[in-house]
């Protein structure tokens, strides 16, 4: 059996786990790949327990929307949101988290504030419709009218005043929020997606520099976890594409097989939205910018976290040609997600025909990993598959390490540790493996 | 200045930070407290930046619903959800996370599946209403009809089949999910709350033992983070209170000043909901229970995480009488949240009239803490308040430690560390403080 690397990117190794991490970048691309890459990616999402089976879910996921996620999808999203959150918090001390309601309108307390009552009355009065048409139109109106938020920006603008006391009315500062928001889709129903939003309030004098600052920082962040960083890129938004009210904009996009899609929008919004939200009362919203009282300018930085899951999955999926003993060629799919993002860090296996003692050692070690905060996969749920089949499965799931507890482990305390990225097996003593994984994860965090 | 403890509970100290942790339990209750405890709690939520200002938010929060949260509320909820998640995952290896849509109906793909079209037609046909009445009734119908989920159970029951392959059709296993769900409230609009749900599929033979198992484990969990654990209690649900389809139930309740409220419901639901969800096709949903193929029984364990935030805030709020220099009596409010839950672990202050050098040291240390994953508060945003006033504020926010970087720090590298729970100040070298906090947090996690 041999694996043929055809493209190799070297990265500097800083520590003892450098050998593993560098190997993430040994990339093999199958040149004559007849499979549709989009279909393969979506199949992998389902096979690897990222996305629930069913066309409706893979369709939603491909469109950058929330779908029903499986155990690995849930963990990947959690890891991504955690990284986003800590990066935003660490980038500036004046960033504060908030959370606002997804439903309702706090001013009126009504459930459907945007429901157009006038429109409804017109429909009820109109003579040109028969009964069925009228019912249809009313239903359509309802689906369009919504009490569900369509962005996170508006909530932050409304909450701006509440947190002025906290920052002693001093610029700049930011309000960060992650959560669902809801977009009406073509059919009149609504699709949900998870967004991560930073609304940054700054001096009008420096708003353009701040936009550049955040665009630079954010692109760095996206690329930090990428296997092929160049697939993530940023570009200035043309004047005719600008969101209403925006004077400048930057997009961070990802090159999917079917074209570029936007992962993140950065807008320089001026002060008009903030003024409008607070009824134009300048005195209420003014802040010190170090020199004088000003109405701040608003920079909005918002990422679609569902689409970013797919971007990282696509970015880290590698196809490798592999020959088995009989020189039969087949393809190995490996999801080389960044160690920090990988939903499962280690899978624990026992092999077929495991004894009760093996199972006990396996369960004990699993518990030790979970207690240490290491996301571990209970291989003991599948005791019928061969080791080879399990490794193929774990590679598709993006599991960093596989450990096998065999009969030998019971005698000598030594187990086999296989790395996803190198496919190399090493023997380690059972007392060392937790420490090894913790050091590995610490190094990966500092990469 | 002296603080009079009137009630002291001792806990075993296991390590070097035991002294700090034990002091969390030195409780002083003011006996003649004329302030309404509910009002005081809600005021504290706003003053401590947990809940956004405004009656509408404190009202929602008191009712155990989502409201607009401030920076500390966001962190507290995150910490709570993280603890719930890791506890559920650690408790059993066969627990898998899922996430399901909050909107829509996956079968029909419609936005408003539950909208009662027949009812709408009746309203359109009815002669007994005038125009205004008809519009009103239609609006009411809309608000009642919803495409938003009202619980997390149904999603897990629907997803059950998708994850059978994952567990090789072997019982028991569980599907865990956290997220928003939406309850119609009295006014016809909808209130949202964050729930954490475990749906446990098990053999019919052992479902009653599993209910007891989870009820015991969950109560332990609630009490683990409590200052006064006895305020959290569990009780069997009476037959007339049982949820439809449930054969048994257990409630975990908290004693608020205004009465008991339910934090968590545990239901033993039999197999009827699962059968109904899958059209009664037994062959599709059967699993091995170790002996034979059975239709599993369902245990539902669901907690309201918004209400649990309030429970822990109430549980950890302590009032202490304090005399100032002139023997004037005033009350000190301290939010002694468990170190694991406390949203801010350390606040960094500089005192009034800080030099540029002090600020640089302060910012550097703050960055060091944030990089190490320690939630730190930038005291530099408030440089006008006195140290005494800041400490009062930090106690209300539940900040574990306050560190002051003064002129002396620049010369000797020594800073003052004040503990929330002991109010004792200690000198520590700046090179030690990060290690101290990390050891403290590790010990708190293992408590």
Automatic annotation (TrEMBL), chains A, B:
InterPro entries to which the protein is assigned, alphabetical: aa-tRNA-synth_II/BPL/LPL, Anticodon-bd, Anticodon-bd_dom_sf, Gly-tRNA_synthase/POLG2
A GO cellular component entry from the record: mitochondrion
GO biological process: mitochondrial DNA replication
Pfam family, one: HGTP_anticodon
Domain spans labelled Anticodon-binding: 357-438
Superkingdom of this protein's organism: Eukaryota
Protein name: Polymerase (DNA directed), gamma 2, accessory subunit
Gene: polg2
